[in-house]
Structure formats: C-alpha cells, structure tokens
C-alpha cells in the first residue's frame, strides 16, 4: 500500500517545494481525467436465489458510450435477491467501504 502524500510534505517530484505548491494540481487533473475515462456501477452477478454483489468498471469508448472493462464479484457473499446483494456490497461489516475503494484507487462512486 502506498503512503499518501500530505499537502505540506515535500513534493515527490524532487523540486524541493511543498506538494501543495507544486504537483497537487497535476494529481487533481489526473483524477478528473480518470473520471472521464472510467465509471463504476454496483450491481449483482448470479441467478435467481443466488445473487452475489458486484462492482463493474466501465471504460469510455466514445462520448456517452461505455464498455465493460472488468467486474469485481464477491462470491463468498450469496444473497436470495438482487437488492440485498447490492446493499451487501457496501455493508459495514463484510462489504466494501469508501475507504476500501479508495485503497484500490476507486473514487467517485
């Protein structure tokens, strides 16, 4: 896991300046660019009575046109219906949290 850079830390580019006065704007530009290329949608995978929570990553192929890039499925968590499966994806005890997603580099859900 990579260490998060603080705003007042020295910039990792080696300029000697504080991160907030150097490359922080480049990072926000990269985040914006990432959001324009990828989007994430929670959902389910499975069949009647055996639904597993999933998170789909879609990649932009044209303006307003998306294609599945990959899907994360949680096979250890089987639910009888789609609604509980989707809510199981983000439950506090066993599911993904926003912190988990940020650790994976996934933001903006």
Notes on the structure:
- The protein has about 110 residues and is an alpha+beta fold.
- Helices cover about 25% and strands about 30% of the residues.
- It is built from 3 helices and 3 strands.
- The chain has helices spanning about 25-35, 80-90, 100-105, and strands at about 40-45, 50-60, 65-75.
- It has a 3-stranded antiparallel sheet with strand order 1-2-3.
- β1 and β2 (about 50-60) form a beta hairpin.
- The longest helix is centred in the first third of the chain and has 14 residues, at about 25-35.
- The chain is elongated.
- The mean pLDDT is about 75.
Put the structure in a nutshell:
The protein has 109 residues and is an alpha+beta fold. It has helices spanning 24-37, 82-89, 98-103, and strands at 38-47, 50-62, 65-73.
Outline the secondary-structure elements:
Blueprint: H1 24-37, E1 38-47, E2 50-62, E3 65-73, H2 82-89, H3 98-103
Antiparallel strand pairs: 1-2, 2-3
Largest sheet: 3 strands, antiparallel
Per DSSP E runs of 2 or more residues, the count of β-strands stands at 3
Global morphology: elongated
The number of helical segments is: 3
What share of residues are in beta strands?
25-35%
Q: How are the strands of the biggest sheet laid out side by side?
A: 1-2-3
Spans where pLDDT lies below 50 across 5 or more residues: none
Q: What is the percent of helical residues?
A: 25-40%
The H/E string reads: HEEEHH
Task: Report the structural category.
Answer: alpha+beta
Work out the radius of gyration.
18 Å
Distance between the termini: 21 Å
**What is the residue-mean pLDDT, rounded to a whole number?**
76
